[in-house]
Design a protein that fits this description.
Strand content: 15-25%
CATH topology: TIM Barrel
Order of helices and strands: EHEHHEHEHEHEHHEHEHH
Bound molecules: erythose-4-phosphate
Number of helices: 11
Shape: globular
Radius of gyration: 19 Å
CATH class: Alpha Beta
Strand order of the largest sheet: 1-2-3-4-5-6-7-8
CATH superfamily: Aldolase class I
Largest sheet: 8 strands, parallel, barrel
Length: about 220
């Protein structure tokens, strides 16, 4: 499963990119607003740091303006994935941009039927929002499982399932078990994935025993 980071904070992206484990980045209008940055500038900077897909979301809701915005975002760098909402106009925009050879990430997906439409519209990624479904008492991970199962049955559907709205390590594990192609994960959750108390305890014991040997490897 590929790991994308879900943020527009440059310092976080640089730090995580240095691990060599980052496959891409997703942003949305809320994350851009939180960064306090101009969208065109911050997306260009992120694309320089991470060679993988960098999702940049349109802000319009009508087809004509969405398409213009999508083309402008796509022109920033080759690795921009234009993000459009799962609406009729969003999917029309997806179809045109996909035909032009652009990667499109269809976002705000909350049902398997919506995901089927996104795939038929030529999306490179569909983003089902796991955490927001959990928030309203549904099981968001069941949606990931359903979409993976549906896509697996049709060779013609090339869309990758991008588990979004991830809230903790449990979501990452469940998305991987469900066969999601990608998870977009907040920076703090990516860092939590490294942690286990037995790793810390075991390392402390190894270092203590090693110090008693008086040896040095270098
Ligand atoms: C990413 O593409 C989504 O916009 C993001 O994961 C949404 O996460 P949230 O529900 O925590 O805002």
């Amino acid at each position: 499963m590929k790991f994308f980071v879900d943020t527009a904070e440059i310092a976080e992206i640089k730090d995580l990119a240095e691990t060599g484990l980052l496959d891409g980045v997703t942003t949305n209008p809320s994350l851009i607003a939180k960064s306090g940055r101009n969208i065109l500038e911050v997306i260009a900077e992120i694309c320089d740091i991470v060679p993988g897909p960098v999702s940049a979301e349109v802000a319009a809701t009508d087809f004509d303006t969405m398409l213009k915005e999508g083309r402008k975002l796509a022109a920033i760098a080759k690795n921009v994935a234009v993000k459009v909402p799962l609406t009729v106009d969003g999917l029309k925009t997806c179809r045109v941009l996909a035909n032009e050879g652009r990667q499109v990430n269809v976002t705000l997906c909350f049902s398997a039927n919506q995901a089927l439409l996104a795939a038929k519209a030529g999306a490179a990624f569909v983003s089902p929002f796991v955490g927001r479904l959990d928030d309203i008492g549904e099981d968001g991970m069941l949606l990931i499982e359903d979409i993976v199962q549906i896509y697996d049955q049709y060779d013609a559907l090339k869309t990758e399932v991008l588990a979004a709205s991830i809230r903790g390590p449990g979501h990452v594990l469940a998305a991987a078990k469900a066969g999601a192609h990608v998870a977009t994960i907040p920076p703090n959750v990516i860092r939590q994935l490294y942690a286990h108390p037995l790793t810390d305890k075991g390392l402390a014991a190894f270092l203590s025993d090693w110090s008693k040997t008086g040896q040095s490897i270098l």
